[in-house]
Every structure is written in C-alpha cells, then in structure tokens.
Amino acid sequence: MQDNNLGLPFWEGFLASDLERKNGATWITLVPDPRAPLVCSGCDSNCWQIHETGWRVVRDMPMLGDPVWLRVRLRRVRCSECGTRAERVKWLDRHARVTQRLAEFVGLWCQKLPVAHVCKLSGLHWDTVRRIERTNLAAQIAALPDAQPTRLVMDEFALYKGHRYATVVLDADTRRVLWVGEGRSREALRPFFEWLGPERCRAIEAVAMDMNTAFDLEVKEHCPQAHVVYDLFHVVAKYGREVIDRVRVDEANRLKHDLPMRKVVKRARWLLLRNRANIPAEKLASLDELLAANQTLSTVYIMKAALKELWSAQGAWQWRTAWQTWLRMANESGVEPLQKFARKLKPYWRGIVARVRWPMHTGQLEGINNRIKVMKRMAYGYRDSEFFFLKIKAAFPGNP
Fold it and tell me: What are the residue boundaries of the Transposase IS204/IS1001/IS1096/IS1165 zinc-finger domain, all occurrences included (predicted)?
C-alpha cells in the first residue's frame, strides 16, 4: 500500500512512505524527512553532507494486536568534528533493533511481570526482553548517587535448593541494597569490600549480622574500626535449634516408658520455640502444664527469655550484670546443651554488648529477603544469578 509520505510524531525526522500487512504483521517503510535537520550522533551538530545510506529493520510497539516492523533508511554523515558518523535518531538508539518506546514499554512491564509474560505481551523473544531489561536495570543502578554508607546490615538468603545461598549487604541508613553476591563465605563477601574501597571502608562505624564467623572476620580485616552487632533474632533462633530442640528430643527419649507424656513433649516443638506473646490463648495452658511437669524444659525456656533481655539493656554496666548472671545460671543449670551453647556464645560477647550503643538489627533485611523470595517465585527462578542480583539492587535503591 502506497502512502503520500505521512509524518508521525513518534518517528520524528522520518516519513512513512509505504505500509503493508503480510504474514500477520504490519510492515512500515520510513524514509528521512527532507525538512528535518541532519544531526551527527557524536557531537549533535548539524551536518550537510551524507556519506552513505542503508536500511535497518527494527521492531516497534504492536498495532491492533499485530507486531510492527519498521524498514528505516538511515544515513551516515560527514561531520567536520567527528568525521564519518551515524546520524542522530531520537527514537532509535545506536545499533538497536527495537525502538525506544518499545524498550520503555518492556522495561516498565518487566518491573511488574515475569519475562515470559512480557514476551507474550510484546511479541519479542525471551533473550531480547531480558537484554532490554538488563540494559534498563544497569542504567537505573548507574544513575544512583555514589553510596557513602556508615552502617551496614548483612544477611543471606537461599538462592537455589541444595543449601546454595547469596549474601545481601544493605545501607542501614538509606535502606539501599549496596551489593549482592553468591555464597556466604569470606571469599564471597570480599568483592564487596573491594568495591567499597579503603576510604569508604574506613567510614564504616557498625555492621549488623548474624553469628556468621566468615562475615565477622572479613569485616574485621577490611573495617577494623567498625563495631560488629549481632542480631537478636538469629541468636535466639540458634538457641532454639541447639538448646530447646535438643533438650526436647532428649526429654522425649528419656520418657519412652511414659508414652502419654512422651507424646506431649514430642509435639511441643513449636509451642516451645514461639514467643509467649505469639501463642494463642487456648494454647497457653498447655504450655504452662508442660513446663510445670518438666523441670529441664522449664529451665531452658526461662533461660531463653533471660537471653533476650540482654538486648534490652540500657547501658553497658546493666548489660554486664545481666550477661554475667546469664552465664552463671547457664553453667549451674546442669543442662548439657545449655552449657555448651553458653561456651560457644561467650567469645561473641562484644558483638552482643555493641547493641547498647548501636541499636541495629537485621530485621530490615529480613523484610527485603521476603520480597526477594516473591520476585524469585514470580519469575519461576532465574537463569543466571548476575541478572537476578541486578533486579534486586534496582528494586531497592534506598530512600531519597
């Protein structure tokens, strides 16, 4: 179908000279508008000489449900400043095979939908959509201001099945995800400090984390002046696994001749691990009866509450008194798993008392990790970790 050189605003500088529909697609031929200035893509100056012309086929937004292909006549100009360069086309990036508005459309929907769904919506191939999204994500991250963190939060999340993890580092003040890397070892975390650089490492004052020795050692090597702050949630969770759960199993085994009581103890796992404030009212009586009937379980349950109080101390001396009392009670309890846990916890006392001066925790990252899991489920997983990590950093750019 021939047209009388129709100019449209979304193809600025070009005229539609031909339109035809074949094989379920719309093909439009675009030629340069002789009234539009010829601009060098290198220096944006007007040019007057054309070196050569050629054709490029690009995709544009679908029209009435059909894909749209553009045959565009492009020119190379002779610029007095840059030499031979391609002309500047406002709606088409250099070497691009899709228009800017289609790329923006894909980038917008990739923030809300999985790549496979965006492919169906735009009619583009999976690799093309992912390449566009990767470019957009990199541009978003590059546009962010330089990070100048003074307090950090570190945590991990499951990347794949089979105990494969990734580490996330958050700026505690701006809530910006600064870095994501595969693994949770010292070697996995080291690239973050190399990216941060010696000057910014010296500005770090405190780092909140769980009781991960690898994190601890790497922070001390690169930021020796920083205070390590151990998170209450992870310490109490570790206490639940290594003390309460162990004692519950041992007590159930000891009660093998008292089957009714053994059954009660075996089924009380979540009742013992949950905070008392979160236990339904109808279950509290069962908990109190269990603790009254079993002295050992009662001891470790009370010691858990006392352990949590260490994070509520208002001053260093109050904390020191509470800490020494807890250690003495643990050592005198006669409960072997509790005594073993106290011995393991003792070398970490500096990271616990640091909470008095630096009231930090990894709760900020726990919420972010939950959103990361949602992102992973929506996409049915990601084919490469680097792309996934770009999405995470772009999704959490921090507060302005």
Answer: 39-82
Q: Are residues 40 and 81 in contact, defined by beta-carbon separation less than 8 angstroms?
A: yes
Q: Which of the 8 DSSP states describes residue 225? A: T
- DSSP tally for the chain: helices H, then strands E: 16, 13
pLDDT recorded at residue 400:
64
CB-CB contact of 208 with 361 (8 Å)? yes
Given a contact cutoff of 8 angstroms between Cβ atoms, the answer to whether 392 and 372 are in contact is: yes
DSSP three-state, residue 34: coil
What does the buried/exposed string (b/e) look like for 224-249 if buried means 16 or more CB atoms within 10 Å of the residue's CB? Answer: eebbbbbbbebbbeebbebbbbbbbe
Beta bridge partners of 46: 39
User: How far apart are alpha carbons 63 and 335 in whole angstroms?
Assistant: 74
Residue 100 — left, alpha, or beta (φ > 0 → left; ψ -120 to 50 → alpha)?
A: alpha
Name the stretches of the chain with pLDDT < 50.
1-3
Q: Which region holds residue 83: left if phi is over 0, alpha if psi is between -120 and 50, else beta?
A: left
Nearest to 297 by CA among 332, 246, 233, 259: 246
Give Cα separations from 285 to 187, 193, 266, 291 (angstroms): 49, 51, 17, 10
| Joined tokens for residue 309 | 């109080």
Please report the pLDDT score of residue 95 as a whole number: 87
Query: Which H/E stretch holds residue 301?
Result: helix 295-308
Q: What's the confidence (pLDDT) of residue 259?
A: 86
* β strands within 119-205, DSSP E: 151-160, 164-171, 177-182
- Tell me what pLDDT residue 6 has: 56
What are the CA-CA distances from residue 383 to residues 68, 160, 324, 379 (Å)? 29, 11, 50, 10
